[in-house]
Amino acid sequence: MADPKREVLERIWLAQAEKLAALLETTPADQLQAALLNVARQFLSDNGINRASLSVPDIAEALSGITDLPFTDPEGAADCTEPEFR
Questions:
Q1: Short name of one Pfam family for this protein (predicted)?
Q2: Which listed site, 5, 23, 67, 69, has its alpha carbon 20 to 30 Å from 35?
Q3: How many angstroms separate the CA atoms of 56 and 58, rounded?
Q4: CA distance 79 to 82
Q5: Residue 39 and residue 12 in contact, taking contact as beta carbons nearer than 8 Å
Q6: How far apart are CA 63 and CA 51, in angstroms?
Q7: 23 Cβ neighbours under 8 A, 6+ residues apart
Q8: Per residue of the chain (86 residues), what is the pLDDT tens digit?
Q9: Burial grade of 46 (CB within 10 A; 0-12, 13-18, 19 or more)
Q10: What are the domain boundaries of the chain?
Q11: Alpha helix locations (H) across 1-86?
């Protein structure tokens, strides 16, 4: 069963996206950037995403169980102070 709140939010996001698409042809870049930032902020707010929910320890904890990524070093983290990483 569909979530009514989610459906309303999706309609709002779609309307904002359509408005932004129309503005792409007529709006100076600085005004367009401000409009895009407002839409992004609204999207994050509507989905309960904030600085606290994106804290580094939370992300590190969420990623701690991932071991099958192609760049994972089985011997431990590479030393990023080595010249090849600068």
A1: DNA_Packaging_2
A2: 5
A3: 5
A4: 6
A5: no
A6: 18
A7: 31, 32, 35
A8: 678 888 888 888 888 888 877 777 777 878 878 888 888 888 888 888 777 766 656 556 666 666 555 554 455 555 444 454 43
A9: middle
A10: 4-85
A11: 4-23, 29-46, 56-63
